[in-house]
């Protein structure tokens, strides 16, 4: 049983089909894409059909902190990532499995509503407060998987290995919820790989929290163990988010973080370097050439005051990148890409900072370019099997409403420029994940319950 969609304008890797015919099988895979109308019944979809984007970095629970740390007091005269982390740890101390699931469901719902069809969840709250294990060692992971299943978003779960409170330092009390031995960590990965039989849109990858929290021998043992289970596994790490972190790694390990990874672990296309904000020329050259993806979280990095990724230098070195929404000050594809592009325009005092003119005179459009790069980077980091509307890929389809004020009067050539850089309202109307509609007319079938559960979780967190 296959379904055929006639999409008014269908995004393709090299342009658009207007209209494009998309044939999807019962398992949610794209069988064919063509310009000629096939026989049989056809479902017509007005608007612009683009591939769903994989969000490459999320800590879903941090959504409850958005808007709650935007003030100063005498006690917080200096406010940065590290003072914010104290507030985040206060939340961690009170978080239950029920809260974790309720918050994640809201975040995943929001992602879907902005056209993100998969999420890489960098998940580090594993145990009870104080570090006591839950009866089910995968309790908190299972809560995230349940939230993904309820909303329909694809998930690449990245349980995080966390062992130290800084280079050579023991963990503090709050961090005890995060800690595994390498053996227990690998057992958790193995358990979660077993969950894929019940959720076909689930992938399992490895995450090292950072070079501050994982020692070299632990990183190597975990990587070897994961590669023995899955040689293709995706590998994520927080790296070089702040100059403070660069200095700590330089002092403790004798090299800047990305340089240390290049020299001691080795990087390749399976790696996602989350943030990678502070890079020197040698790190840019080495990491870009390795094929690793820079996992940019522009709005989170902006709210933390981290610094600004060297986008133009990285792009010109041929580096891959994608976007994540990290602490979820925003879950909007357009907002994340816009602050990246427009922030650089402010800094560099010029327009269209990464678009380059084509020798044949064709126009290169920044909105389209930013979206296509983030699309490829997201798929590379999530291994979800989507990322393009072509035969053999998962049918993750996002329909942008041509009647949204953002897109009124636009055709395919400028539609993505308008969405990403040109307007305020969210034009995402319908979202399909693996052949199944999860958002229609901007709404999710389970939306009321998801919002209600989130509100209840926030109330519980405030009262504890
Ligand atoms: Zn993060």
Write the layout of secondary structure elements.
Blueprint (H helix, E strand, L loop, with lengths): L1 E11 L2 E3 L2 E6 L4 E5 L8 E9 L1 E6 L22 H14 L2 H17 L2 E8 L15 H13 L2 E8 L20 H13 L7 E3 L1 E3 L7 H14 L5 E5 L3 H11 L3 H8 L6 E5 L5 H10 L2 E4 L1 H7 L6 H6 L3 E4 L9 H16 L17 H17 L14 E4 L11 H11 L5 E6 L2 E4 L7 H17 L1
Parallel strand pairs: 1-5, 6-7, 7-8, 8-9, 8-10, 10-11, 11-12, 12-13, 13-14
Antiparallel strand pairs: 1-2, 1-3, 3-4, 5-15, 15-16, 16-17
The chain binds zinc ion.
Q: Identify low-pLDDT runs.
A: none
Helix share bin:
25-40%
Number of separate strands: 17
Task: Provide the domain count.
Answer: 2
The global form is: globular
CATH top-level class of the largest domain? Alpha Beta
User: Radius of gyration in whole Å, from Cα?
Assistant: 22 Å
The kinds of small molecule bound in this structure are: zinc ion
Helical region count? 14
CATH topology of the largest domain: TIM Barrel
């Amino acid at each position: 049983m296959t379904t055929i969609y006639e999409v008014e304008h269908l995004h393709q890797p090299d342009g658009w089909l207007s209209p494009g015919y998309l044939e999807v099988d019962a398992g949610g895979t794209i069988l064919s894409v063509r310009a000629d109308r096939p026989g049989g019944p056809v479902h017509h979809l007005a608007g612009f059909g683009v591939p769903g984007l994989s969000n490459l970095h999320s800590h879903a629970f941090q959504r409850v902190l958005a808007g709650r740390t935007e003030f100063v007091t005498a006690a917080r005269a200096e406010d940065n990532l590290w003072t914010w982390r104290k507030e985040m740890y206060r939340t961690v101390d009170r978080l239950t499995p029920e809260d974790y699931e309720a918050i994640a469901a809201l975040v995943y719902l929001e992602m879907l509503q902005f056209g993100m069809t998969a999420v890489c969840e960098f998940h580090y709250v594993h145990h009870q407060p104080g570090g006591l294990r839950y009866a089910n060692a995968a309790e908190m992971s299972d809560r995230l998987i349940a939230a993904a299943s309820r909303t329909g978003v694809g998930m690449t779960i990245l349980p995080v290995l966390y062992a130290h409170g800084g280079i050579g330092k023991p963990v503090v009390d709050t961090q005890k919820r995060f800690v595994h031995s390498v053996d227990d960590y690998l057992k958790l990965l193995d358990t979660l790989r077993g969950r894929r039989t019940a959720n076909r849109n689930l992938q399992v990858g490895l995450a090292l929290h950072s070079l501050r929290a994982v020692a070299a021998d632990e990183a190597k043992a975990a990587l070897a163990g994961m590669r023995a289970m899955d040689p293709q596994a995706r590998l994520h790490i927080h790296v070089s988010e702040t100059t403070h972190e660069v200095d700590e790694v330089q002092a403790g390990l004798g090299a800047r973080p990305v340089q240390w990874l290049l020299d001691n672990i080795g990087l390749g296309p399976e790696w996602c370097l989350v943030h990678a904000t502070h890079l020197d020329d040698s790190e840019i050259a080495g990491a870009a050439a390795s094929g690793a993806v820079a996992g940019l979280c522009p709005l989170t990095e902006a709210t933390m005051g981290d610094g600004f990724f060297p986008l133009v230098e990285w792009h010109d070195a041929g580096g891959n990148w994608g976007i994540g929404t990290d602490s979820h000050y925003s879950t909007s594809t357009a907002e994340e890409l816009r602050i990246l592009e427009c922030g650089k325009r402010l800094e560099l005092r010029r327009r269209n900072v990464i678009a380059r003119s084509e020798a044949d005179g064709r126009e290169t459009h920044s909105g389209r370019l930013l979206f296509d790069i983030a699309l490829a980077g997201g798929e590379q980091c999530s291994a979800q099997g989507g990322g393009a509307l072509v035969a053999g890929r998962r049918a993750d389809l996002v329909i942008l409403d041509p009647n949204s004020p953002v897109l009124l009067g636009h055709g395919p050539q400028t539609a993505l420029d308008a969405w990403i850089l040109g307007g305020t309202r969210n034009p995402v109307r319908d979202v399909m994940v693996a052949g199944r509609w999860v958002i229609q007319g901007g709404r999710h079938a389970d939306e009321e319950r998801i919002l209600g559960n989130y509100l209840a979780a926030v109330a519980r967190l405030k009262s504890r």
